[in-house]
Design goal:
membrane, TonB_sidphr_rcpt, 4% helix, globular, mainly beta, 22-stranded antiparallel beta barrel, iron transport, 5-stranded mixed beta sheet, transmembrane, 759 residues, receptor
C-alpha cells in the first residue's frame, strides 16, 4: 500500500521526504522539523515531522477534536502497526496493550462468557464496545482484519456515546479507501496447525474516488486445549467518492461468519485455595490438578454467528473550519450456540476409593439470539473565535433503534462427565425453538454539544453535555411445566411446554450526562489537566432484561433509578524526544451510585455504591526513529463502599479487577532488513464474585507473560515475521467463573509465522 513502508522510521510522507531530499538535508533532519518557512523569498521549504506509527497523535472520532496530548482524558490508542507487529487478530488480544483491561470473567455458574467479555476498572465493559462511534451489538469475537486502530477511553463515556459502562468505552476504527493503489496480503501458520490469510487491496478509481477490499479467513485448533477449534471468514468492501474534495461519501459493508467450538473451561481442582466441598470427597485435596488440555464439552457443542453491517457516511466541508457528517448504519448479529460446562456442585463416586472414576455434573447453555441496530447520526465540527477566545466545537444528534430477539429453545440435559478423563464423544442433538421468546426494543434520541475554549495560548477549558431520551419495550414468555429453579407452573388446561407470557412491560426516561475539564500548558511539550464527568445508564444497562416494575424480585426493575457514575481525573501529558514519544500520568476516581444490591429476603434495592480509584502511567511512540514502544501501568483500588460484598473472600474489593497491571511492547529496527520485538505483561491477583459454592478458590494468582517477535525483510515486496507467545510457557489462570468451579487456563507457548506481501 504505502510505497515507503520499509524505510527505517515507518512510512514517510512522500512530500516531506521529497522536499527534504531536494533541499539537500538528511531524512532525519526532515523528520525532526515541524514548521513551514520561506527562504530567500522564492523557495518554499515544507518540513513536517512524520508521526510515530505507534502513536497516531489524534483520535479518529470527530467527537474528540483535540490532539491526544491535549485531551483531558486517559485514552490509549492501539494503532494498526502494533496489531501487525504483535500478530494480533481479535479485539480481546489487542486490548492486552491496555493495563487492567481483559477477559477475566468466565461466566456465572453453568453459563459461560463468550466473545469479547471485557472487564475494565472493575466493571463489565462488554456493552460499551463501538465501531466508528456506533454501538456494536452481540457477544461475539471481533476480528481486527478491517480495523485501522482501537481507541480505549477510560472513565465514564456517557457524554461521548450515550448510555455506557461507568468504566469507559472501546471504539474500533474501520479501514477506509485512500487515493493510492496497492495490495497488502498475509499468510500465517502457527501452533496446532493454525492457518490464517488476509488481503487488503486499495484501488484508486479516479482522482477523487477509490475502492478498498479487506478479506480474512482463519482456522485454528487451540494449542492448549483438546477439541477447541475456531473457524471464521470475513469480507469488507468499501467505496469512497469525493476524496480530497469538500464533499465525500463512504459506503461500507462488513460480513463476518464464525463457526467455533465454545470452551466451558476446566475444573479448579488443585488450584491454590481449592478444598473439597465435603468430607467424603476429601481425596480431591491431594489428587492434583486436571490436565489443562481437558475438554468437558460434547461433540454437539457449537458457537455460530453471522455479522452483517452496512454503513453510509456523508461528509461536507461547509468551510475550511466547519464540517458536517451524517452516518447511517444497519447491523445485525445472529448467534446461536450449545455450550456444555462442568458445574461441580454434585460429585458422583462410582468407586469412592478411586478418584479417577469420580464424575461431575454438566450444564448445557443454549442461545439463539438476533441483535439488530439502525442508527442515523449527524455531527458538525467547527472552529471559530468570539473575541479573543477560540472555540473548537463538536455537536450532533443521534437516532437509534436497537432490537433483540431471544428465541426460546427446548432445554437439553447432558450426562455427567469424568473429572480427570472426560469423554466428549457424546451427541446431545441441536437447538429446537419452543416459541417461548423474549423481545426487546429500545429507541433512543440523543443530542450533544462539546466545546474547547482557548482562553489564552496556554490555558484551555472544555466541556460538554448530552441528553438522551430512551423508550424500551420488553416482553417474554416462558415454557410452562418445567422443573427446577424458576420453573413456571402451567395454567389450568394448558399443556406442558406451552409458552406463557410472563413479562410485558415498558420503560421510558431521560439521561443527562456532562463533562468539564481544564488544561494548562506548562511548556510547549507538556501540560497538566483536570477533568470531571457524570455518566448514567438506565435499569438493565444496555440489555433488554427489564422485569415488571415494582415486583421487587429482579435486579432490573423498571422502577429503578438510572445507575450514575461520577468520575474525576487529574493528570499530565508530555511530548518528549522531538515529540516522538507521548507520556501520560493520571490520578483517577470513579464513584458509582444507585447500584442494585440484594436484600436479605431475596429482593433488590438501590443502596449499593462502588468506587474505583488509582493512577495510571503510559508511554507510546518512538524512543528513537528505529525504536518504538507502547507501555502502561495501573494501580487501581476497586471496592464496594456501601452495600453487600461482591467478592467471595468477604472483602469490599470488586471482583475480576487486578490491583496491579502492567503491559509493555517494544519493537526495534536493528538493520534495514532485521527487526526485533519483545513484550511483557503482568496481571495481578483477581478476586472472584460472591457465590454459595463451597471449597472453590476465591481468587486467582498474579502472573507474568512474555512475548517476542523477529522480522526479516526479504525485499521490497516480501517480509517474514515470527511471533512467539508466552515464551517461558507460563501456567496461569486467564479467567475464572463466579462460583469458582471452573476456569480458563492461559494459552501455552505458541508460535505464528507470517509472510507479508506488498505491491
Amino acid at each position: 500500500m504505502d510505497k515507503n513502508r520499509n524505510l527505517p522510521f515507518g512510512s514517510f510522507n512522500s512530500l516531506t521526504l521529497f522536499t527534504g531530499l531536494c533541499i539537500g538535508i538528511s531524512p532525519a533532519a526532515a523528520l525532526a522539523a515541524d514548521n513551514t518557512t520561506k527562504k530567500n523569498d522564492d523557495t518554499l521549504v515544507v518540513e513536517a515531522q512524520t508521526p510515530s506509527l505507534y502513536s497516531p497523535g489524534v483520535s479518529a472520532d470527530p467527537k474528540f477534536t483535540q490532539p491526544l496530548v491535549d485531551t483531558t482524558r486517559t485514552i490509549t490508542v492501539i494503532p494498526d502497526q502494533v496489531i501487525k507487529d504483535q500478530g494480533v487478530n481479535n479485539l480481546t488480544d489487542a486490548l492486552k496493550n491496555v493495563p487492567g483491561v481483559g477477559a477475566f470473567y468466565a461466566g456465572e455458574n453453568g453459563s459461560s462468557s463468550t466473545g469479547d467479555a471485557v472487564y475494565m476498572r472493575g466493571m463489565d465493559t462488554s456493552n460499551s464496545i463501538y465501531v466508528d462511534g456506533i454501538r456494536d451489538i452481540g457477544s461475539v469475537t471481533r476480528d481486527t482484519f478491517n480495523t485501522e486502530q482501537v481507541e480505549v477511553i477510560k472513565g465514564p463515556s456517557g457524554t461521548d456515546y450515550g448510555r455506557s459502562a461507568p468504566s469507559g468505552s472501546i471504539n474500533m476504527i474501520s479501514k477506509q479507501p485512500r487515493l493510492d493503489t496497492g495490495l497488502d496480503a498475509s499468510v500465517s501458520v502457527g501452533s496446532a496447525w493454525m492457518r490464517r490469510g488476509t488481503l487488503d487491496y486499495n484501488q484508486a478509481i479516479s482522482d477523487n474516488a477509490a475502492f478498498r477490499l479487506n478479506l480474512m479467513g482463519e482456522k485454528t485448533h487451540d494449542a492448549g486445549r483438546d477439541n477447541i477449534q475456531n473457524e471464521r471468514y470475513g469480507v469488507a468492501p468499501s467505496l469512497a467518492f469525493g476524496l480530497d474534495t469538500s464533499t465525500r461519501l463512504y459506503l461500507n459493508y462488513l460480513h463476518v461468519h464464525q463457526n467455533n467450538t465454545p470452551d466451558g473451561g476446566i475444573p479448579t481442582i488443585g488450584l491454590p485455595g481449592y478444598s473439597s466441598p465435603t468430607a467424603a470427597s476429601s481425596a480431591l485435596n491431594t489428587s492434583g490438578k486436571v490436565a489443562t488440555s481437558n475438554y468437558y464439552g460434547t461433540d454437539s457443542d457449537f458457537d455460530k454467528s453471522t455479522t452483517d453491517t452496512v454503513t453510509m457516511r456523508f461528509e461536507h466541508d461547509l468551510s475550511d473550519s466547519t464540517t458536517i457528517r451524517n452516518t447511517t448504519r444497519w447491523s445485525r448479529v445472529k448467534q446461536e450456540y450449545l455450550l456444555t460446562a462442568v458445574m461441580g456442585s454434585t460429585i458422583g463416586m462410582p468407586n469412592p476409593n478411586d478418584v479417577s472414576t469420580w464424575t461431575w455434573t454438566r450444564n448445557v447453555n443454549l442461545k439463539d439470539v438476533s441483535n439488530r441496530i439502525l442508527t442515523n447520526q449527524t455531527n458538525i465540527t467547527s472552529k471559530f473565535f468570539t473575541g479573543s477566545v477560540g472555540h473548537d466545537v463538536s455537536a450532533g444528534v443521534e437516532f437509534t433503534r436497537e432490537n433483540q430477539t431471544n428465541y426460546g429453545v427446548t432445554p437439553i440435559t447432558a450426562p455427567v462427565v469424568n473429572i480427570y478423563h472426560p469423554i466428549s464423544s457424546i451427541s446431545l442433538g441441536g437447538l429446537n425453538r419452543n416459541g417461548a421468546n423474549a423481545n426487546g426494543q429500545t429507541d433512543t434520541f440523543g443530542i450533544y454539544a462539546f466545546d474547547t475554549l482557548a482562553i489564552t495560548k496556554n490555558f484551555e477549558l472544555n466541556g460538554g453535555i448530552r441528553l438522551d431520551n430512551y423508550h424500551t419495550d420488553y416482553d417474554s414468555a416462558t415454557a410452562c411445566g418445567g422443573t427446577g429453579r424458576g420453573a413456571l407452573a402451567c395454567p389450568a388446561g394448558v399443556a406442558t411446554g406451552t409458552p406463557v407470557t410472563t413479562v410485558d412491560t415498558a420503560k421510558s426516561g431521560n439521561l443527562v450526562n456532562w463533562k468539564a475539564g481544564a488544561l494548562y500548558r506548562l511548556t510547549e511539550h507538556g501540560n497538566v489537566y483536570v477533568n470531571y464527568a457524570i455518566s448514567q445508564q438506565p435499569p438493565g444497562g444496555s440489555n433488554f432484561a427489564l422485569a415488571a416494575g415494582g415486583t421487587g424480585n429482579s435486579a432490573n426493575r423498571t422502577d429503578f433509578k438510572p445507575q450514575k457514575a461520577k468520575s474525576s481525573e487529574v493528570g499530565t501529558k508530555w511530548e518528549v524526544l522531538d515529540k516522538r514519544l507521548l507520556l501520560n500520568a493520571a490520578l483517577f476516581r470513579t464513584d458509582i451510585e444507585n447500584e442494585v444490591s440484594a436484600n436479605d429476603d431475596g429482593t433488590y434495592s438501590q443502596y449499593g455504591k462502588k468506587r474505583v480509584e488509582g493512577y495510571e502511567l503510559s508511554a507510546t511512540g518512538n524512543i528513537t526513529p528505529d525504536w518504538q514502544v507502547i507501555a502502561g501501568y495501573t494501580l487501581q483500588h476497586a471496592s464496594v463502599t456501601e452495600g453487600a460484598s461482591v467478592a467471595q473472600d468477604g472483602s469490599s474489593a470488586l471482583a475480576y479487577t487486578p490491583k496491579h497491571a502492567f503491559t509493555l511492547w517494544t519493537n526495534y529496527q536493528a538493520t534495514d532488513a532485521l527487526s526485533v520485538g519483545a513484550g511483557a505483561r503482568y496481571v495481578g491477583s483477581l478476586r472472584r464474585g460472591s457465590d454459595g459454592a463451597v471449597g472453590t478458590p476465591d481468587h486467582t494468582e498474579g502472573y507474568w507473560v512474555a512475548d517476542a517477535k523477529l522480522g526479516y525483510k526479504v525485499n521490497n515486496n516480501l517480509d517474514l515475521q515470527l511471533n512467539v507467545y508466552n515464551v517461558f510457557d507460563t501456567n496461569y489462570v486467564a479467567s475464572i467463573n463466579k462460583s469458582g468451579y471452573r476456569y480458563h487456563p492461559g494459552e501455552p507457548r505458541t508460535f505464528l509465522l507470517t509472510a507479508n506481501v506488498h505491491f
